[in-house]
């Protein structure tokens, strides 16, 4: 029986390989990180990019391993406590304890081709702090590192089953955020959303039990609640979380409600679109036009059908949206404008398109961080991100330590260390810090490079760097 199972799994994977190879037409593109080719090509299927998993992960400093246990092929990548595993056989991702499907809008997110794992670029960007952009003219793919917020995300889960209800719930909780009040506000919102899904499932199950007790033979006997999430943006002091609430109460299929929150981590506030975009601009009309054109394009291609009696006209006063790494994504619920089979349709409006419509406090979404200069007075506006990059070598025992003279003016948003890429032990790399400007004022950031056991007093003038930042509203 075990041999038969293994054969079936092998055939299933082989079918996926053959389907992908035929669809992709063997089109390849070189992958570059910091303008250096990785020596491994990505595969291109139309506009969808599939990255070579091992080569990309190793270039980013991850250790990659392969397992084929109990008939399931799994590839894993680990770096500094960050562990991502992909079940290639069953198409599941375990991202630091968070389990979700390896599926993307265009179809399957992971393929095995000639014994090598390829992962769709958007799925890769969800699981790893990096992105990929494909330039069709040059035929090249550029990888870019992403510096995520200085916060930990803990996966909380509830799994249970009784006679009438199967419950699978996962939701995120933040830890290690400097502002504990802001952290608590975010966690309360996310936990309450998960609890509301559980309560709805319990009510559905109670109704099912009563229906069966009352003799309704058509009652199926088992309800289901499946609640999950995706973190779609985690940079520059902003966090976007998409929640998916699936409820099955009988019948041909269940229903899914998608909600989302975008948080300012300096306050814990859930932001509306009107907080991000400048009301003095006609941003709603522009977004309406972009979405209308994309709907028409999908309909014309035969990929979508729209209800004739209630077609899309505008996003309304308080639209559903979330932040992605590439832009603001708007979405519509099942049956809102399209049939159930269309699922939840999403429409991305790039940050570059919205650049002149963003409020000044959120212009960083399109402009990115400002590189700080220790030899000059640096000017930031409230909401801007100032970036510091310093070289170092942790294998020597030396580390950079920093102090901000006024934490009400500047807040640490993220910090990370990137190896140089030289495979030699002790080759060093770059430390990167992002600081968010909070309000008007002047603050100094002082960095000192020393060994912890030797103390701050051991830092010489040559190992001390000071950045002066003036923030305006």
TrEMBL record:
One term of GO molecular function: cysteine-type endopeptidase inhibitor activity
Domain spans labelled Deacetylase PdaC: 160-256
Domain of life the protein comes from: Bacteria
Annotated Proteinase inhibitor I42 chagasin domain residues: 380-468
Leader sequence residues: 1-24
InterPro entries: Chagasin-like_sf (IPR036331), Cu_amine_oxidase-like_N (IPR012854), Cys_protease_inhibitor_I42 (IPR052781), DUF3298 (IPR021729), Mao_N_sf (IPR036582), PdaC (IPR025303), PdaC/RsiV-like_sf (IPR037126), Prot_inh_I42_chagasin (IPR018990)
Keywords of the record: Protease inhibitor, Signal, Thiol protease inhibitor
Record domain Copper amine oxidase-like N-terminal: where: 40-141
Domain DUF3298: 274-352
PANTHER family listed in its UniProt record: AMOEBIASIN-1, INHIBITOR OF CYSTEINE PEPTIDASE
Descriptive protein name: Inhibitor of cysteine peptidase
Annotated organism of origin: Sporobacter termitidis DSM 10068
